[in-house]
Amino acid sequence: MLAAPFLTLPSKRKLPQYYQRVSDPIDLCTLEQNIVTGFYRTVESFDRDMSRLFNNNVRFFGRTSELGIAATRLRKAYSMAKTDFLAQIEDILGESPPASFIPEHDPGLCSVHDTCSFIVVYYHTFCTCSVCEGMVVGNVLPHTRACHHCSY
User: What is the C-alpha separation between 29 and 140, in angstroms, rounded?
Assistant: First the structure.
């Protein structure tokens, strides 16, 4: 499950440096609790906490780490869900959510760019490796037509 590593915060005893570098930690269980208790009064406040969850984990673990990549993929899934369920969100709110809630096109969120989990930079280039199977991917190394995880 993509979200599993983000359900709870890391142990303060096992990973104290997380709390030294991340000033405002949050996890999915806290987000759920905030929903259930009615803590969120606006979609923007919920959206800010979701962004904080993604940003905290990418910042601490690194964009190319397993958890950083998982956080980026989860951010993509969240952004796609916001777009896919916009009509239902409008029904619940009784109005359209603010423009800041609707994701703009971002190469990091474009499904064309996310065929390889190790992509960090996006160039609209084809990779010829067996993992990517000729799909359009980013971070292709010049003159190799392979993404960086294939070239090692």
Answer: 37
Residue by residue, pLDDT tens for the chain (152 residues) are 889 999 999 999 999 999 999 999 999 999 999 999 999 999 999 999 999 999 999 999 999 999 999 999 999 999 999 999 999 999 988 899 998 888 765 444 444 444 344 444 333 444 445 454 444 444 444 444 445 545 43
Query: What residues does each domain of the chain span?
Result: 4-104, 106-152
Instruction: Note if the pTM is more than 0.85.
Output: no
For residues 63 and 49, give the distance between their C-alpha atoms in angstroms, rounded to a whole number.
19
- Looking at domain 4-104, its CATH class is mainly alpha
